[in-house]
Inverse folding.
């Protein structure tokens, strides 16, 4: 028996097992394993997005003080400047008292041109590659309301057809949103003016809200969002259209950075046929209120119990 | 001889690191596959979930499919614990710890699959109460986090207690662990029911929005879990590390048969409801079965149904006594139920989308590598746990301190 083996027997307590592992093999094995692990983990060096320390410890939006927000917005604006060389302003307009936003869409006039889809993309700094669209325009055959018969990706030349009607669908800003119930970290919630928002710095990306939404309204950043610098809209809201991160949810926010200032959402502004109406449901003189009271309006998937604030009508 | 915890862990550590050639090659192979999985996961962290086959239409894919299946496997440990502790079956009681150890390994895989699916794993601390926000009791995900971790700790405690006491040749004090075992018996169906509730509570997804999901989950889990245990026991028998009596296998086989028949009843009930009325609500199932345009999932689903039925037939015929047929039946059950729960339930809940869009889902190579890596790691954990436990249970070590 060599000196090595005698030493092994002395240091090895388990005399009733197979021969124990020697210290040399153990160290060699650990070294090999560590090296293999380091090689396995090496793609992390090419990580496309690495949060900074401040990003990492940032608290939930609702727990931020005014000072916190100033600091955070300044940091985010600096990050945008560094990345896109754009001087952005991140605002945080509060909900206006006595306002509940609602939308009416006139299916009798929509021609399915999709200008709203692209205006939304421009306004909200959505990723161009991969392309994110909040609004989904369904081309529906006349005579059916069955969504499964719809065409989602019709070419431009199939717009404005008289045998079909076109139904844009985006976030319905439901009164009973299922998405905010299922979020495990409350990263998404409903504001006082009825808009459902996401704190992009709090979302953990579990996509449970995407599973829970009956309207396919929520979008997830599977990849790092890519926006050409010249397409950046510098007028940003913290809870709405500031550039998002890889691995977080986003969706239509009724352009709250504009609408809380009294302006219209981008989709409505661009609509060439006047099919879109937006306003304050609580104001008896608003367009949406008048239409809902006078026209024959309906909502999608009423049976799910979400009580959407996006109304459709077949008016002239 | 070291005493206490250090003695036990010292033994466990040495036990895992030593073994014959087959053991070493097996563990080495699992480590290699796990490393590939770690590599694929790193690529996913670096470049995002874009590296998977998921998209906004099918936003949960193979990771959550495996998660749902493995929660069932973990819960199925209770199928052996009940005969052992409630019916006080001596033979099963001797080997029940091997199923509880499997629950630990399966839960480890569940937690890894969920972590792999998260978009921002660096933000998982957001879920902790106090430092983050834990949206309990409204979010079913928070319930799942609680019950899964709770079940993991219950099993770690019971296995740890039994193995530790037996290792040092100490008697097992009933009141120190049997109440925990009974708690685990009640807890096990709970973990799988909560996981089912995660899906069936969503009114947005009509394919999942039925009360039958939780019973289906439980029935299929209680068929697939013990089937896997039978395979483990056969492997242990083959390597002559532990003698498993034929009557134990026979009893487990009965459990599997009953559960499988229950599962077939529930699946049959769903198929009838969806397809007989011809209403539009059956669109998800129709697509899954290939009745509504082409679907890559259809051949998988038909195979799964066939495997389930053939396995049930085998288990009802006299040929079930034949060990080779039993092995084949067990493999068929595990594969069939994996497909049924994963592809046939999780994935097809997304097709068509809530707006009626039909898409195809195919996992990417990176996604598959992560899956295999996690499965390999789970087997690695389980093998290590068995390596530690088997000599203790066999009584090869228990008399060290009490030599007369």
């Amino acid at each position: 028996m060599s000196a090595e083996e005698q030493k092994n027997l002395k240091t090895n307590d388990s005399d009733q097992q197979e021969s124990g592992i020697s210290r040399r093999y153990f160290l060699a094995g650990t070294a090999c394993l560590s090296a293999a692990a380091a090689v396995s983990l090496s793609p992390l060096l090419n990580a496309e997005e690495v949060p900074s320390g401040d990003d990492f410890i940032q608290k939930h939006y609702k727990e931020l003080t005014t000072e916190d927000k100033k600091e955070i917005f300044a940091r985010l604006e600096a990050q945008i400047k560094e990345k896109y060389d754009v001087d952005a302003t991140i605002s945080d307009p509060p909900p206006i008292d006595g306002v509940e936003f609602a939308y009416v869409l006139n299916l009798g006039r929509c021609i399915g041109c999709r200008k709203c889809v692209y205006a939304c993309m421009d306004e909200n700094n959505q990723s161009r590659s991969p392309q994110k669209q909040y609004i989904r325009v369904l081309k529906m055959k006349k005579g059916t309301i069955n969504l499964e018969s719809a065409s989602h990706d019709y070419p431009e030349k199939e717009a404005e057809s008289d045998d079909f009607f076109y139904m844009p669908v985006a976030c319905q800003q439901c009164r009973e949103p299922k998405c905010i119930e299922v979020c495990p970290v409350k990263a998404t919630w409903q504001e006082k003016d009825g808009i459902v928002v996401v704190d992009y710095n709090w979302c953990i990306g579990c996509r449970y809200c995407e599973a829970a939404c009956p309207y396919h309204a929520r979008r997830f950043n599977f990849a790092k969002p890519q926006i050409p610098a010249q397409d950046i809209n510098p007028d940003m809201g913290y809870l709405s259209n500031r550039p998002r991160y890889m691995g977080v949810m986003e969706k239509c926010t009724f352009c709250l950075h504009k609408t809380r200032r009294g302006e219209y959402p981008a989709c409505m502004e661009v609509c060439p046929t006047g099919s879109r109406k937006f306003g304050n449901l609580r104001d008896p003189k608003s367009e949406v209120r008048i239409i809902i009271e006078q026209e024959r309006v309906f909502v999608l998937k009423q049976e799910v119990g979400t009580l959407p604030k996006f109304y459709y009508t077949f008016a002239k | 001889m070291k005493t206490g915890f250090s003695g036990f862990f010292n033994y466990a550590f040495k036990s895992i690191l030593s073994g014959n050639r087959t053991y070493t090659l097996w563990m080495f192979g699992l480590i290699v596959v796990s490393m590939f999985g770690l590599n694929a996961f790193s690529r996913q962290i670096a470049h995002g979930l874009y590296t998977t086959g998921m998209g906004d239409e099918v936003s949960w894919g193979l990771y959550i499919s495996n998660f749902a299946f493995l929660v069932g496997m973990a819960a199925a440990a209770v199928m052996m614990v009940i005969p052992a502790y409630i019916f006080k079956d001596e033979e099963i009681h001797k080997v029940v710890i091997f199923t509880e150890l499997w629950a630990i390994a399966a839960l480890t895989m569940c937690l890894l699959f969920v972590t792999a699916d998260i978009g921002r794993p660096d933000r998982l601390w957001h879920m902790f109460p106090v430092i983050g926000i834990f949206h309990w009791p409204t979010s079913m995900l928070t319930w799942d986090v609680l019950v899964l971790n709770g079940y993991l700790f219950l099993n770690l405690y019971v296995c740890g207690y039994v193995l530790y006491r037996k290792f040092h040749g100490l008697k097992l004090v009933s009141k120190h662990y049997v109440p925990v075992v009974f708690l685990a018996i009640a807890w096990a169906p709970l973990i799988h029911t909560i996981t089912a509730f995660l899906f069936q509570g969503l009114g947005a997804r009509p394919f999942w929005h039925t009360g039958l999901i939780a019973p289906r989950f439980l029935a299929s889990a209680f068929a697939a879990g013990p089937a896997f245990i039978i395979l483990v026991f056969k492997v242990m028998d083959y390597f002559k590390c532990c003698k498993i009596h034929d009557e134990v296998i026979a009893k487990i086989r009965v459990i599997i048969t009953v559960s499988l028949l229950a599962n077939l009843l529930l699946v049959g009930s769903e198929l009838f409801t969806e397809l007989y009325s011809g209403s539009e609500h059956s669109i998800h199932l129709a697509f899954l079965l290939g009745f509504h345009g082409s679907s890559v999932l259809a051949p998988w689903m038909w195979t799964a149904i066939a495997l389930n039925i053939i396995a049930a037939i085998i288990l009802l015929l006299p040929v079930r006594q034949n060990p080779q047929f039993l092995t084949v039946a067990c493999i068929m059950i595990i594969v069939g139920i994996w497909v049924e729960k994963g592809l046939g339930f999780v994935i097809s809940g997304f097709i068509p989308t809530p707006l009626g869009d039909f898409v195809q889902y195919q996992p990417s190579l990176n996604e598959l590598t992560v899956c295999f890596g996690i499965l390999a790691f789970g087997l690695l954990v389980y093998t290590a746990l068995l390596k530690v436990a088997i000599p203790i249970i066999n009584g090869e070590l228990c008399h060290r301190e009490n030599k007369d």
Summary: Chain A touches chain B through 73 residues (CB under 8 Å).
